[in-house]
Amino acid sequence: MIDGVFKRYIDPCWEYPARLLVRVGLSANQVTVIGLVLVVLNCALFLLHRSTIWFGVGLAVTFAADSLDGAVARLRNECSMFGGYLDAVVDRYQELIVFLTLGYFTGAWLATMVALSGAFLTSYAKARTAVEMPISNDHWPDLFERLERTVFLCVLLVANGVVESFTQSPQPIMEPGLWLFGALAHGTAIQRFYRARGMLLEQQRVTPDPDNTADADQ
Questions:
Q1: CATH code of the region 2-206
Q2: Closest Cα partner for 181 from 128, 133, 121, 92?
Q3: What is the C-alpha to C-alpha distance for residues 103 and 78, in angstroms, rounded to an integer?
Q4: What one-character DSSP code corresponds to residue 207?
Q5: What residue ranges do the domains of the chain occupy?
């Protein structure tokens, strides 16, 4: 929702740091892959220091840097379909690695898998619609998109560390936070389902295609 509504204001913020990356010769796809490597390093370091505060801060910086690939692509005039595809796939791997790390750290595997599946289904609900009909990538102002999920997760990690320091209780809010994350993510996936349903029914009414019955998800 935030990214969709404020995209034209957010994107220019990345141009200055992106110019620095362009000057050292990095391409947009290289920046995308570097973002994945940084997430892996953050997760590995977290399993060593086990501070949710520093993990949350590290992920905030990493995911912010991950947004630079689009700005680099625009500055280098190298926007491509493969670049967008690579970015989407890397985003899913980033989420997978982070939630596997959280599952291992907290032991709350059920809450973690509910949260992860909600994040994946939110993304899939939009991507699968694009298989059926042309859609705009910027006009899906839904509740719990990737930016909101990232902010929520980073805040949860930092807040857990702060509460933990006062209560001396290990992981006092991590599991409830993961359950709330999952509820919001699945709620957004359902929201997108109904949005897609309306769009597809309208598209079918305007341009009926009775032969388009193949399952593209094989």
A1: 1.20.120.1760
A2: 121
A3: 37
A4: S
A5: 2-206
